[in-house]
Structures are given as structure tokens and as C-alpha cells.
Specification:
There is one protein chain. The protein has helices at 5-28, 35-57, 64-79, 81-85, 103-135, 144-208, 211-229, 243-248, 268-289, 321-327, 332-343, and strands at residues 240-242, 255-258, 265-267, 295-302, 305-312, 347-352, 358-365. The longest helix has 65 residues, at 144-208. A five-stranded mixed beta sheet has the order 2-4-5-7-6. A two-stranded antiparallel sheet has the order 1-3. The relative contact order is 0.06. Helix 1 packs antiparallel against helix 2, helix 5 packs antiparallel against helix 6 (144-208) and helix 9 (268-289) packs antiparallel against helix 11 (332-343). The protein has two domains: 2-172; 238-366, Histidine kinase-like ATPase, C-terminal domain (Heat Shock Protein 90). The protein is of the alpha+beta class. The chain contains eleven helices and seven strands. GO terms for molecular function: kinase activity. This is MacS family sensor histidine kinase. Residues 1-168 form the DUF5931 domain. It comes from Nonomuraea guangzhouensis.
Length: 366
């Protein structure tokens, strides 16, 4: 992954810097007891540093054989320290010949496999280091190096894993955004052509009646189905719901659902209540106009609001009828519809003309 490249570059810099540090220490101690062997170990470290920097720069080579070989080379150079340093004075602790260079494989394992593998590599190197210190004559056993190795493996591994997860999420977000842009583009093109033609056929068919009315009904069904294809499948942010899928579930041969190509975003509870109010309005259509009555649901957004209108082809509502129904205890409109919407801070507009159908307009703040 691209996010790993800075980690591998940083490890390469660390390998070179720690190699120079080991060479300076060896020169400072005049090669210890065996200068030739000491410089031979430094040479092996230098060759492996160059090889490891190249190998880790190639993603295809970052596999278990390279990781295991890297760790074995570091442990071998570490175990060669007693042969270079010779006998140490009693009570004196000496830095091993590779010095901090042995942390390179630990960093590589941590970046490749996270904190668990980083800790495993640290345990191997720390065990070899502690074995050298314990086996020395009267040498103090220092665990500072082992502790630092474990901390390095765990912390770097954890940070590398978090970086990889962040990159994966970013990649998914970019892909989803690109897909949504393409979906929105197609939706605009279809809306400007096919959907408008289908809507026109639906309206003209209802006006002409007869066989044209059936053609209009089929056009309305296809319009609703085509709009549903462009509804964003990705879930909206937490606590927010797209109203369109909730409305689409009411679509049928008798009920035509028309929604915009872009999401109608509302808080979850508001969207559920809005959809329930639309369902109650459609129940009224079936109850008062018959199960075969046609109904149309239109949804749109604008000026910080979301509006859904439910229109039917029934007998309409006579003046005072709603008040009489409420007085008689029939609270379908006043409670199931108006009560829901007004409880959300919205308002309901009911327009009905006897013989020309009824339209219920529900508006809530977005």
C-alpha cells in the first residue's frame, strides 16, 4: 500500500544511521580484541543494509522469506559480538557490535504485520541479546535494550496498522464517491430525458382515459422503478436516513412513487414518522376510494424542507368533513397524519375538491 512507503523509507534511513553508529563504536574501541573480525561483521552489516533497503522497496519482495532472513542476519551479527570483543573486565557491560542496528528487523516486522509481529521479532532479538549478557563473566544483566525493543515493536506496529486501516477507509471513500458521482451523472441524464417522458406519458394517459390511461399507468410504474435504480445504496451518516427507500416500499400498481435523483436526507426518527404519515394517507385512499383507486406520491426538497404530497383520484373531501370525522372520534387524519407531522415541527396542507380527488401535502424541516 502507498501508506507503507514512508515507513520503509524511514527504516532505510535508520539502518544506514545505525550502521554508521556501529562503525564509529568499533573504531572508538579500536576494533575490540579482534579488529579484523569486527570489521568483517560491519562489512556484512553494510552489505545486508544495502540489500535490505532495495528488497523492502519492492512490494513483491516484502514476504516472509525476506523478513525471516532479515531477522537471522541481525541475530547472527549480534551473536558474533563475543568473538569480536573478547574477554570483558568483570562488572563491565559492553554495547554489542551491531549496536542499535539490530532494531532494523524489528521495525520491518512491525510495519509488515502490526504490533503482534513486531513484538515477536523484538522477543527473538531481545532473547539473543540477553543470552549474550547472561553468558558473560560477571557482566551486569541490563534489560534496557530488551524493553526498548519491545516498545519499538509494539508502538511502531500499532501506528503502522492504524495507518493501513486509515488508507483502506480512504480508498473505499474515494471509490464510493467516484461511484456516486457517476450515479448522479446518470441520474441527471435520465431525469432530463427518460423520466420526463415517462411522467408526461403518465399525465397525458390519465387525461385521455381509456387505453391511454393504462399506458399512462404502466409509464408511471416504470418511472418509479427507474428512479429507484438511482437511489444511493451506501448508508448515510450515522443517525441520518434517506427518505426515498422508505417511500418506495409503498409503490404498487395503484400507487406511483416519484422521488428526486438525489437523497432526501432526514434524521432517522423524522424519516420514519414521515413515511408512516404517508402510509396513513394511502390507507385513507384505500378506505375511502376503494382498493383499486390510483394514488400518486411526489417527494421533493427545497429551502431547508422536505415535502411529500399524496394525491388520489377519489371523490374529494367536502367542506367540514374532516372536522366532523374528528368530532366523531375518527382520528386518522388528525392524529395519524397531521399529529405526526406537526409533532416534527412541520405542517400539513389538505386540498380536496368534491369529484376531483384529494391532495395531502406533508412538509417537515430538513
Amino acid at each position: 500500500m502507498g501508506i507503507e512507503r514512508p515507513f520503509w523509507r524511514a527504516i532505510a534511513v535508520f539502518r544506514v544511521a545505525s550502521l554508521l553508529y556501529a562503525a564509529v563504536l568499533l573504531a572508538q574501541h579500536r576494533g575490540y580484541a579482534e579488529p579484523l573480525t569486527g570489521w568483517l561483521v560491519i562489512g556484512v552489516m553494510g552489505l545486508w543494509t544495502a540489500a535490505a533497503i532495495f528488497a523492502y522497496s519492492v512490494e513483491a519482495l516484502r514476504r516472509w522469506p525476506l523478513l525471516v532472513l532479515d531477522l537471522l542476519v541481525a541475530v547472527a551479527c549480534l551473536l558474533a559480538s563475543p568473538y569480536v570483543e573478547g574477554a570483558r573486565p568483570p562488572g563491565e557491560g559492553t554495547m554489542p557490535v551491531p549496536a542499535t542496528w539490530i532494531a532494523g528487523p524489528v521495525l520491518a516486522w512491525a510495519v509488515h504485520g502490526g504490533r503482534r509481529l513486531g513484538t515477536v521479532a523484538a522477543a527473538v532479538v531481545a532473547a539473543a541479546d540477553l543470552w549474550l549478557r547472561v553468558s558473560g563473566p560477571d557482566a551486569p544483566v541490563l534489560i534496557n535494550g530488551a524493553v526498548l525493543l519491545f516498545m519499538t515493536g509494539a508502538v511502531v506496529g500499532h501506528v503502522a496498522r492504524l495507518a493501513k486501516q486509515a488508507e483502506e477507509r480512504m480508498q473505499r471513500a474515494v471509490e464510493m464517491e467516484a461511484a456516486q458521482r457517476e450515479r448522479d451523472r446518470l441520474a441527471r441524464d435520465v431525469h432530463d430525458s427518460v423520466l420526463q417522458v415517462l411522467a408526461l406519458v403518465q399525465r397525458r394517459g390519465q387525461e385521455l382515459g381509456g387505453e391511454a390511461a393504462e399506458l399512462g399507468r404502466l409509464a408511471g410504474q416504470q418511472e418509479s422503478a427507474l428512479r429507484a435504480l438511482f437511489i444511493r445504496p451506501e448508508p448515510p451518516p450515522t443517525g441520518v436516513v434517506d427518505l426515498r427507500p422508505l417511500l418506495m416500499r409503498y409503490g404498487s400498481e395503484q400507487v406511483t412513487i416519484s422521488t428526486p435523483a438525489t437523497p432526501l436526507v432526514l434524521p432517522g426518527p423524522v424519516a420514519e414518522e414521515m413515511a408512516a404519515a404517508v402510509g396513513a394517507a394511502l390507507d385513507n385512499v384505500r378506505a375511502h376510494c376503494g382498493p383499486a383507486a390510483r394514488a400518486w406520491v411526489f417527494a421533493e426538497s427545497g429551502d431547508g424542507t422536505v415535502t411529500v404530497s399524496v394525491r388520489d383520484e377519489g371523490p374529494g373531501i367536502a367542506a367540514g368533513r374532516l372536522a366532523e370525522a374528528a368530532a366523531a372520534g375518527r382520528l386518522g387524519v388528525s392524529q395519524s397524519i397531521r399529529g405526526r407531522i406537526e409533532g416534527l415541527g412541520g405542517h400539513v396542507l389538505i386540498t380536496g375538491v368534491p369529484g376531483e380527488g384529494t391532495e395531502i401535502e406533508l412538509t417537515v424541516p430538513a
